Known about the structure:
Elements: H1 2-10, E1 18-20, E2 29-36, E3 45-52, E4 63-66, H2 109-121, H3 131-139, H4 141-157
Antiparallel strand pairs: 1-2, 2-3, 3-4
Helix pairs in contact: 3-4
InterPro entries: Ub_conjugating_enzyme, UBC, UBQ-conjugating_AS, UBQ-conjugating_enzyme/RWD
Domain UBC core: 1-157
Keywords: ATP-binding, Nucleotide-binding, Transferase, Ubl conjugation pathway
Amino acid sequence: xxxxxxxxxxxxxxxxxxxxxxxxxxxxxxxxxxxxxxxxxxxxxxxxxxxxxxxxxxxxxxxxxxxxxxxxxxxxxxxxxxxxxxxxxxxxxxxxxxxxxxxxxxxxxxxxxxxxxxxxxxxxxxxxxxxxxxxxxxxxxxxxxxxxxxxxxxxxxxx
Length: 159
């Protein structure tokens, strides 16, 4: 954990993610302000997120919650991110994921952030956290794009 946090404090990603850390809360959470400039609908947005680490990290996954508004099939309305690698290790009680797709202590802060960037670029509407966003993604792409664009504009106004 210490190595990952030192790495994170020095990290600058080519995709525009730049974590801002408060050393007083290193072991509990990481505040990341991320100008996500990847080729997707959210390009140019500045989305705040909090990554919280459980006491038994790395045996259990951190949680990530956007504090900025994000319209996405894999982000709950409260901002919590829903991706397989952040689900507890072991078998999925709902049968949607293989154990190999879920959390493993080999994941790093970097691999988590890269997975979130990938998720934002390629939504999984098969098992959505936000059913309404998933339905729009599938059935009304123009309306989905409008809502994402609104989130991007709001995020830019907050900077």
